[in-house]
Amino acid sequence: MRKVINTEKAPKAIGPYSQAVEANGFLFASGQIPINPETGIVAEGGIEQQTKQVLANVEAILKEKGLSFAAVVKTTVFITDMNDFAAVNAVYGEAFKTDPPARSCVQVCRLPKDVSVEIEFVALCR
Length: 126
What we know:
Mean pLDDT: 97
CATH architecture: 2-Layer Sandwich
Number of strands: 6
Strand order of the largest sheet: 1-2-3-6-4-5
Oligomer: single chain
């Protein structure tokens, strides 16, 4: 079974994709960037503010399914500058305080809307 998951509390997709798809007991989420869903504007401030907005968007998708950060089993973090790793990691650690998920973090040359961070995730729905 496959079910598309969308919420108004996270940014609308800016292309032909869904915010998330539930399949076989898992929630697969598209990468979230630091867009405020109420304004449609990229979060102002540095990498910390952008990461906080990304995680707020991740949390909104999780909540749409009645889940929390504890349900997340894997994340992929994309950043445009590996020098921001420590700052992103500090904010990320606030969301995933205990038993954090598996994670990859890679530097990329560019992200949509020229943001500095994007996070995608897989969560367990059961």
